[in-house]
Amino acid sequence: PTSDDTPEVLNRALSNLSSRWKNWWVRGILTLAMITFFFIIIYLGPMVLMMIVMCVQIKCFHEIITIGYNVYHSYDLPWFRTLSWYFLLCVNYFFYGETVTDYFFTLVQREEPLRILSKYHRFISFALYLTGFCMFVLSLVKKHYRLQFYMFGWTHVTLLIVVTQSHLIIHNLFEGMIWFIVPISCVICNDIMAYMFGFFFGRTPLIKLSPKKTWEGFIGGFFSTVLFGLLLSYVMSGYRCFTCPVEFNNDTNSFTVDCEPSELFQLQEYNIPLVLQSVVGWKTVRMYPFQIHSIALSTFASLIGPFGGFFASGFKRAFKIKDFANTIPGHGGIMDRFDCQYLMATFVNVYIASFIRGPNPSKLIQQFLTLRPDQQLHIFNTLKAHLVDKGML
């Protein structure tokens, strides 16, 4: 049985309602609270967003590891939790060290300690992991080898699911706030609208792993999310603070989001297919190219994203638990809210790398300036010869 973790003030206010409608109101009120919090952290800027992502990552890791620890603890083998958090530290050091080296290159080169850490970053990361690996081997206890290796795998799969994905979320953020906000918002929209359509119109079960999910909710969530993605993308594409890449300004030691908008965020005219012209009455439509990409993002969020939730449902059923935790009344734990977000983060990162991102001249110049003078001269002469051959000089 699960305890009622609903705040007392809501319990009193909703005491006359049936459990079904009480749950609806609790979820609705706390969903609005979470959306409000989401708006606030967006307003506070990229640095706060990255810190929130880190906090969410740690909390999700804690929730998953705690489930394993509840099983593991009964054997009085205390190293599991210690090693789990140690490996979390190691993996975060590796990923965030890579991020700092990549996006704060000039700052790293300017500070001697950072330059040394950057140069030997991967070796240090490997040494840290190797230390944890040796600690695990030394912790092996006779008669419990199988369980310990099982939990070793548990920790590493958790790291793969949680830490790697949160790292990709931050990479998406550096591409521009819009690549962070739109995908996350699409997942949130799909979750809300699928619940709403399922609550009021749901009749046909969708999947056994989640008995409350219905085809009506799934389909309603899809169309609502695609429409929402188009509208949100249209609004955000007009603001540089959302469309420009997040870059670190070495002069002010702060993040900047100012640039000349790329073609993705400039209104263009598109011809409407002849089949639809008679329906809508238009021959052309003006829209941002990013809106076309938003259709891919919202489609993934509504059709494939829920499988992250189904995966989490299967995991919880395997251990006979309702939620990962009871952090948010009516919603469960933080991981219960982010199970689809992590899958979405990977898709967005792959999508950007495959269809959006091109060579970054500023990063090439930064790396060029760190070379020895003779290396710089060699590159200059090679580039000059190439441009002469092309007839550009």
Assembly type: single chain
Shape: flat
Strand content: 5-15%
Number of helices: 17
Question: How many E-type strands?
Answer: 6
Distance between the termini: 77 Å
Rg, please? Answer: 25 Å
User: If you average the pLDDT, what whole number results?
Assistant: 87
Main location: membrane
Pfam family, one: CTP_transf_1
Pathway: Phospholipid metabolism; CDP-diacylglycerol biosynthesis; CDP-diacylglycerol from sn-glycerol 3-phosphate: step 3/3; Lipid metabolism
EC number: 2.7.7.41
How would you describe this structure to a colleague?
This protein is mainly alpha-helical and 393 residues long. It has two domains: 8-235 and 293-361, no CATH class; 362-393. Helix content is 72%, strand content 6%. The chain contains 17 helices and six strands. The strands form three sheets. The chain has a two-stranded antiparallel sheet. Helix 3 (46-72) runs antiparallel to helix 8 and helix 8 crosses helix 9 (177-201). The chain is flat. The N and C termini lie far apart (77 Å). The mean pLDDT is 87. Pathway: Phospholipid metabolism; CDP-diacylglycerol biosynthesis; CDP-diacylglycerol from sn-glycerol 3-phosphate: step 3/3; Lipid metabolism. It is found in: Membrane. Keywords: Lipid biosynthesis, Lipid metabolism, Membrane, Nucleotidyltransferase, Phospholipid biosynthesis, Phospholipid metabolism, Transferase, Transmembrane, Transmembrane helix. Its EC number is 2.7.7.41.
